[in-house]
Design a protein that fits this description.
Length: about 210
């Protein structure tokens, strides 16, 4: 009996943002990448370019830092591929708190901050969304991409929050649990969507290292 085809997801968090953006809650602000880091991490881009599957569908978000990261991987040797823009996989909206200095946030919170994120999973900034809502937005988008690309590969250049939300959707875990996941810049997370359900292959693989056997 032949196994039904599944969809392979290759999720990469965008490169490090510019130093001035690192001091604030940038959320969905369209901040630029750190040019010095782009040059210093050239080996990581070459590693990704050689590892990612050819003929994959590429997906970015409306924020330019994801497209710029994709372009750096293309420049490192992966054949340039026109990416599809997927708004539902963009970063968590921090609403009125976007642009706020990290030190100014605690006084505005209704709930204690998460141990590994400035906001708890249920905290909803004014005009923004909670991590719980991000999971509710990202999950259907991942299901749609899986159905549209059954049997193929999808390379998504995304954001830390949305990648955590993708894993949370795959595992059926809550927002506060998802925020315990480390998703570093340029790290690789691999998911598979089978007919039976989701499978998590790896999380937060450093781009500079050899793949796991």
């Amino acid at each position: 009996m032949q196994t039904p085809p599944h969809t392979n997801f290759w999720l990469i968090r965008h490169a490090l943002v510019a130093p001035d953006a690192q001091t604030i809650l940038y959320g969905r602000l369209d901040v630029s990448l750190c040019q010095a880091t782009l040059a210093a991490q050239a080996p990581a881009y070459r590693r990704l370019a050689s590892r990612l599957p050819l003929s994959a569908r590429w997906v970015v978000t409306p924020l330019s830092r994801t497209r710029a990261t994709a372009e750096a991987i293309f420049a490192a040797g992966y054949p340039a591929t026109p990416p599809v823009v997927e708004p539902d996989l963009t970063e968590q909206s921090l609403g009125d708190w976007q642009g706020l200095a990290h030190a100014d946030l605690p006084a505005k919170l209704a709930n204690p901050a998460h141990a590994f994120w400035p906001l708890a999973g249920a905290e909803q900034p004014p005009g923004g969304e909670s991590m719980e809502q991000v999971i509710g937005r990202v999950g259907p988008a991942m299901e749609r991409l899986a159905a549209d690309n059954r049997g193929g590969d999808v390379v998504l250049i995304g954001h830390g929050g949305a990648i955590r939300a993708s894993i949370a959707h795959a595992l059926g875990i809550g927002a506060d649990n998802a925020l315990h996941l480390s998703v570093q810049n340029l790290s690789l997370t691999r998911l598979e969507r089978h007919v039976e359900g989701w499978r998590v292959v790896s999380v937060n693989e450093p781009a500079q290292t050899e793949p796991h056997p």
